[in-house]
User: What shape does this take?
Amino acid sequence: MKTNAELLNERRERIRKAVALEKPDKTPVVPLMDAFCAKHMGAPMAKFATSLTYSNEVMVESMKELGDLDGSDSAFVAAPLFPLGFMTRIKMPGKELPDDMLWQLDEKEVMTRDDYDTILSKGWPAFEDDYLRNRIGVPLDDVLAELANIPQMVKKMEDAGYVVYSPLVINLVTEKISGGRSMPGFMKDLYQCPDKVEAVIDVIQEGTLNELRQAIRATKSEYVFISPARGASEFFRPKLWERFVWKYLKQVADAILEEGAVINFHIDSNWERDLEYFKSFPKGKCVFETDGVTDIYKIKEALGDRMCIKGDVPAAMLALGTPDQVYNYCTKLIRDMGPGFILSSGCALPANAKVENVKAMIAAARS
Amino acid sequence: MSQTLINAMADLDESVLVAEVNALKTQGVPALEIIQKLQEGMNIVGKRYEEKEYYLSELIMSAEIFKEAAALIGGDLAAGDAPSHGTFVMGTIYGDIHDIGKNIVTTVMSCNGFRVIDLGVDVSTAAYIEAIKEHKPQVVGISCLLTTAFDGMKECISSIEAAGLRDGLKILIGGGPCDQTTADYVGADAYCKTAQDSVEYSKKLMGVK
Assistant: This one.
């Protein structure tokens, strides 16, 4: 019987090999775990969604019950941090929503066009602090205090033998502006005041690049999670996408690589048009994580020789399907994707995924 | 009648469009005729979206410009009086407040000549039933981004059926986690992976070429 420390090392090495496009002993299984764990363990969603520490405890218990998976994308629930990443309000269970419901971003146009002038004149940090605290009601001091406990949360998961795959998350500037302005508001701005939007993004980006370098050095993170979901190719004309999405995503990615970390691109929505752009990154240094909307087989065809692929067991199958369906889907995926592959849920494991289906997913990677 | 107006709408040229609408108003052109030309421009927008020349960014701008033109002409007169292939009622099911996917579908359907009734997000079964009774749509669209909303979709569709409103009505579902299994589970007529799927389904249903 292996100790948890031995299991942790074995699982780390398995993930490392998959990312480096080497052949691991088994396919790693690293789902994006959060709300599922609360339902799985019968934990109150209202408490789970609002306490990073409590969510960490519940997630570890859930993983232990699931057994031989390799790790989780993060060590705690991301919900309290969403307003920081998307500059938008969030409705939480037990507050704006019934106790047992999932948290949801409340996408409204809170940031105005006039705010662009404020950002340009006063700078991003001052604007951001005021906006988060006073405009969208983020209990910033509480959130920051809990974030200070991340090392203990990571340790708790590691002590149980599980890898925290990407403890460091970098929020992207396009997500912030698009979230704050709302998707329609942001897109109108790209037509009606593109130069001002670009100037604002440049200001924010400069700070983002500095902060991410400091964060990687401080945390010694080997993997960095970035999620450019609102910048999907399917949303923008190529010229707009190149100017307002790719340019900034590439700068962040290059900085992460320069710091020696691996990038996990958490890619939601359809990016099939622009997969070729990702060929510009060095081999074995990136992971393309898909929710399934970008066809995983097209990713394999375009990028399979350059980067590891992570995904994409469909949420509907996990919630409504049978263990046999899940097992067969995963077995086929593991066979077709080859060595540079990490088995995962398409985006987050759904809260109402059947436990037997999640276990079938793990079993497929262990057979 | 102004080809310039049609082109301005199709090319999303806001300044030309506003000038043209004002000029036509001054000339005494009836509002309905102006709206019809705007709708022709929107049809071109829809076509360009279908052909992947336009994307969501352009759909949003087209909706914005159309709204601006409608306001110049006389507000609500615009959308209601435009000729359409049929009526499409759409909302995000209760328990779910995500609206990006829903907005894409309603805009694409609008661009393709359908009269769209947008019920918003977190829509109750009662609101769907009321809208079906009032607007008599040929097609209803139900969207969600959460798998936990599947049971709400199922209940809603069952209730529509129990209310005797399902005859002659087609119900489409869509949204990030949905697939054909979901459509079977909730009792929908079809699953739409993309917004364009809803256009094609509806056009085929209504015999539009």
Remarks:
- The domain at 3-81 of chain B is CATH 1.10.1240.10 (Methyltransferase, Methionine Synthase (B12-binding Domains); Chain A, domain 1).
- The longest helix of chain B spans residues 31-50.
- The CA atoms of residues 128 and 149 of chain B lie 15 Å apart.
- Chain B touches chain A at residues 12, 14, 52, 54-58, 60-61, 63-64, 95-100, 103, 146-148, 150, 176-179, 181-182, 185 (CB under 8 Å).
